[in-house]
From TrEMBL:
Keyword flag Cell wall biogenesis/degradation: no
Domain of life: Bacteria
Keywords: Coiled coil
Coiled coil feature spans: 58-89
Protein name: Transposase
Length: 94
């Protein structure tokens, strides 16, 4: 499975969202904020939906959980392959 490319870690995203909030408080538009953070308005909007109410600690924990989940999925897939191979051996279909 190919990992989706990500330029920013969750902690960096939360930091940029904090910076975006400060810029918005100064009266800047979404477009100006996005340009200053060097991301598109769509990316900024997606980040707000995903990480909107998180602090940096929570974002770091989320990243760790996602990495652990990927490892577990890989292990489960490997286990299922081994079970299928053993099943075929037991049935004599080799």
């Amino acid at each position: 499975m190919m990992k989706k490319f990500s330029k920013h870690t969750p902690e960096q995203i939360v930091a940029k969202l904090e910076q975006a909030d400060k810029l918005k408080a100064e009266g800047k538009t979404n477009g100006e904020v996005a340009r200053e953070l060097q991301v598109s308005e769509a990316t900024l909007s997606r980040w707000r939906r995903t990480y909107g109410n998180m602090d940096r600690h929570e974002a770091k924990a989320l990243k760790k959980l996602r990495e652990e989940n990927e490892k577990l999925k890989a292990l489960l897939g490997q286990s299922e392959l081994e079970k299928a191979a053993l099943r075929e051996l037991a049935e004599g279909n080799f």
